[in-house]
Amino acid sequence: MIDALLEPSDLPHRLPRFADISIEDYGPAIEQGMAEQLAALTAITASAEEPTFENTLVALERSGERLDRVLRVFFSLLSADSDDDLDELHAAYAPRLAAHHDALLLDDALFARVNAVYEKRAELEGEDRYLVERYHRDFVLAGAALGPAEKARLRELNQEISGLEAAFGQAAQADSNDLAVVVDTVEELAGLTPGEISAAAAAAEGRGLAGRFLITLTLFTAHPYLSVLENRELRQRLFEAQLARGSRGNANDTRGIALDALRLRAEKAQLLGFDSYAGLVTADNTAGTPKAVRDMLERLASPAARNARAEQAALEASARSENGQSTIEAWDWPFYAEKVRVSEYDVDLAVLRPWFEADRVLRDGVFFAAGRLYGLTFEERPDLQGYHPEVRVFEVSRDGEPIGLFLLDLYTRDSKKGGAWMNSYVTANTLLGEPSAVVTNNLNVPKPAPGEPTLLTFDQVNTLFHEFGHALHGLLARATYPRFAATSVYRDFVEYPSQVNEMWMLWPEVLANYAVHHETGEPIPADVLGKLEASATFNEGFATSEYLAAALIDLAWHELGPAEVPTSPEAVEEFEAAALSAVGLDNPAVRARYYTAYFKHIFGGYASAYYSYIWSEVLDADTVAWFKENGGLTRENGEAYVRYVIGIGGTRDPLESYAEWRGRPAPIAPLLERRGLA
Ligand SMILES: [Zn+2]
Question: What is the 147 CA–ligand 1 centroid distance (Å)?
Answer without folding.
Answer: 39
